[in-house]
Each structure stands twice: as structure tokens, then as C-alpha cells.
Amino acid sequence: MKITKDSVIAEVLKVNNNAANILMSFGMGCLGCPSSQMETLEQAAEIHGIDLEKLLEELNK
Q1: Domain positions in the chain
Q2: Tens of pLDDT along 26-40?
Q3: Triad 16, 17, 22: Cα angle to 5°
Q4: Most buried residue, 8, 25, 41, 56, by CB count within 10 Å?
Q5: Cβ–Cβ < 8 Å for 10, 36
């Protein structure tokens, strides 16, 4: 599965075993919060001031 800006964080955590480490390295420490169950990577990146393209690149390696 290709991870896109529209991928929901909870889904990404299920399909990529290293996703939690990658997301936390980009400053997303609240992976267990209720928002992550419905929030897309694009929404989270905007809220946290993260470069979405770099994040997607790392998650899709």
C-alpha cells in the first residue's frame, strides 16, 4: 500500500512497522491520541508544521 497525504495515521501505523518511529522523529509524539484515529497525514503535518513531502518519502521507503 502506498502511503499518501490522505492516509489516516491509524492506518499508516498498521501497514508500516516503522511508522511510529518515523512519525515521532518528525515531531508527532501523540500517536495514541483520539485524533490519530481519524486524522490524515496531511492534516497532522499542517498542525505540527511538518514538511509533508519529506514525511511521505520516509514512510514510503
Answers
A1: 9-59
A2: 988 777 777 778 899
A3: 80
A4: 41
A5: yes
